[in-house]
Amino acid sequence: xxxxxxxxxxxxxxxxxxxxxxxxxxxxxxxxxxxxxxxxxxxxxxxxxxxxxxxxxxxxxxxxxxxxxxxxxxxxxxxxxxxxxxxxxxxxxxxxxxxxxxxxxxxxxxxxxxxxxxxxxxxxxxxxxxxxxxxxxxxxxxxxxxxxxxxxxxxxxxxxxxxxxxxxxxxxxxxxxxxx
Length: 180
Hints:
The protein is an all-alpha fold. It has helices at residues 2-16, 20-47, 60-80, 84-104, 107-126, 131-137, 139-161, 164-173, 176-179.
């Protein structure tokens, strides 16, 4: 039933918000709430004895997933906004959200952040309807995406090998000189 609630909210919001002014108010409210959640999490993380940020959500995976969505909302709002002050505030909020994703310690959300952020940045920077064709024809962009994808795979593999089941596999299958 929860999934249907989320779909109903998305459909309701997208059907009611028609102009940029309405969307801007929604984005500002969303960014303010995520900033409050982030600062509460940072305060708890700095004052309590824990290695992950939990904030008001109570679970680092849920927090990092929420903040990941807020990261993209702040980026979208930054690209659409014309006022320089709001542009900078949206950018700062996006950076704070990225930092919270890192501090929350969720590898899955971090691995989702890296490629989607790169794709979003490329999509935002092309600003044309044929953005895929433009990216595909530029050899540099394709090369950069391949390198970044390779790095994400390597980082994910290293992260996997540091989990409990990954360590067991590493001990059984990798040569002794690579283990430590």
